[in-house]
Automatic annotation (TrEMBL):
GO annotation terms (biological process): methylation
Superkingdom assignment: Bacteria
Pfam families: Methyltransf_23
The keyword Ubl conjugation appears for this protein: no
One term of GO molecular function: methyltransferase activity
Keywords per UniProt: Methyltransferase, Transferase
Protein name, entry field: Class I SAM-dependent methyltransferase
InterPro entries documented for this protein: SAM-dependent_MTases_sf
Length: 307
C-alpha cells in the first residue's frame, strides 16, 4: 500500500517554474500526500467530516499558492470520470444570475467581430448570454460532458456551433480568429495552466478579450475559514489571487486589463449549510430555495488581452 503514496507528482510552480517554496501555508490535519490513493478517492467528491487536501505552499518567486505534491494527470483523469455535477444542489435560477453577472462585466469591454471560444460551458448558462450577440460568427465550445451536448446544440445553428469533447483541443479553431474566450472555473483545476493559456493565445485575434473566473485565495472568506474554505480541495492544484493571476497571464503572453471581485447568488439555506460544513458541522437543512442573496464569495473575474 505504501508504494502508491510515492506515486503522487512532485510539481514546481505551475506559473513561473520556480522550485523554491516557503513552508506549508494551508494544510489539513492528515495531508493528502501522506494518504494512499485508494483511501483518498473517497474524499474526492463533495464534503466530508474530515477534510483532506494536498498541502499548499507559496512560490518563493511569484507568490502563487500551489500544491508541490499533487495527483498525476492520469490519476486526475480517472477521478474526474467518476465525478458528479459539482454544482448539484444549487438551483438553476441562482446559477443563471451568477453567470449573468459575469456577462454584465464582460460586455463593458470592446472587441472586434470574430469567433467565440469557451472551455467547460456545461449547460451553457454563460454561453446563452452571449449567443445572440451579432459580433460572433462562430462558436467553439469545448465540453467533455456529452450528456449536456443536446442542450448546447440548441443554442445555435450547426453551421456556426462547433462542439468538442476535448477540453483544450483547439486545433480546428483557425489561428487569430477568436475575439472573445471564456474560462469559468477552469484555471484552478489545471496542472499546466501556462501551457493551456499559450495554446489559447495562438487562437486569439489582436485586441481579443479573455475572461477568466477563478477563486480568490486572498478573499476575506478564505481568510476567515482557513483550510475549511471550500476552494481548498483535492480538485485545485493551485489557487490564485489578483496578483498571482496577473503573473500567470504574463507568463502565457497576456496582459491583464482588469481583475474584479464577482458576486455569486445562493439560496440562503444552501449558504448556511455550507458555512456549517466549512466549520466542521455536517448538518442537512430543509431546502428553502426561494430566497437568493448575492455574496462576494471569493471569486474573481480577470479580463486579459493577448500581448
Ligand atoms: Zn512561481
Amino acid at each position: 500500500m505504501a508504494n502508491t503514496i510515492s506515486k503522487y507528482e512532485s510539481r514546481v510552480c505551475p506559473s513561473c517554474g520556480c522550485s523554491d517554496t516557503g513552508s506549508v501555508s494551508v494544510a489539513s490535519k492528515r495531508p493528502a500526500q501522506s494518504i494512499d490513493l485508494d483511501d483518498l478517492q473517497s474524499h474526492w467528491n463533495g464534503f466530508f467530516k474530515e477534510k483532506v487536501i494536498f498541502s499548499y505552499s507559496r512560490c518563493a518567486r511569484c507568490n502563487l499558492l500551489y500544491c508541490p505534491s499533487f495527483f498525476s494527470s492520469g490519476q486526475l483523469e480517472a477521478l474526474y470520470e467518476q465525478m458528479p455535477d459539482n454544482t448539484a444542489g444549487v438551483p438553476l435560477e441562482a446559477l443563471e444570475k451568477t453567470q449573468k453577472g459575469y456577462f454584465d462585466i464582460l460586455k463593458n469591454f470592446s472587441f472586434e467581430k470574430g469567433g467565440y471560444l469557451e472551455t467547460g460551458p456545461d449547460i451553457g448558462l454563460f454561453t446563452k448570454n452571449i449567443i445572440s450577440d451579432p459580433a460572433f460568427d462562430q462558436f467553439w465550445l469545448f465540453e467533455p460532458n456529452r450528456a449536456v451536448w443536446p442542450t448546447l446544440n440548441r443554442l445555435a445553428d450547426s453551421n456556426r456551433l462547433h462542439l468538442s469533447a476535448e477540453m483544450f483541443g483547439f486545433s480546428e479553431v483557425p489561428d487569430t480568429s477568436i475575439s472573445v474566450a471564456v474560462m469559468i472555473h477552469v484555471l484552478d483545476h489545471l496542472l499546466n495552466p501556462v501551457e493551456i493559456l499559450k495554446k489559447l493565445r495562438i487562437k486569439m485575434a489582436p485586441g481579443a478579450v479573455l475572461a477568466v473566473v477563478t477563486h480568490d485565495e486572498s478573499s476575506l472568506l478564505a481568510k476567515i475559514t482557513g483550510n475549511g474554505w471550500p476552494a481548498f480541495c483535492l480538485q485545485h492544484p493551485q489557487l490564485y489571487n489578483p496578483s498571482t493571476v496577473e503573473t500567470l497571464m504574463k507568463e502565457a503572453g497576456f496582459k491583464v486589463v482588469r481583475v474584479q471581485r464577482t458576486v455569486n447568488y445562493f439560496p440562503v439555506t444552501y449558504l448556511f449549510k455550507h458555512l456549517l460544513w466549512a466549520f466542521g458541522f455536517k448538518i442537512n437543512l430543509p431546502g428553502w430555495d426561494g430566497l437568493q442573496i448575492p455574496l462576494k464569495l471569493g471569486n474573481i473575474l480577470t479580463i486579459a488581452s493577448p500581448e
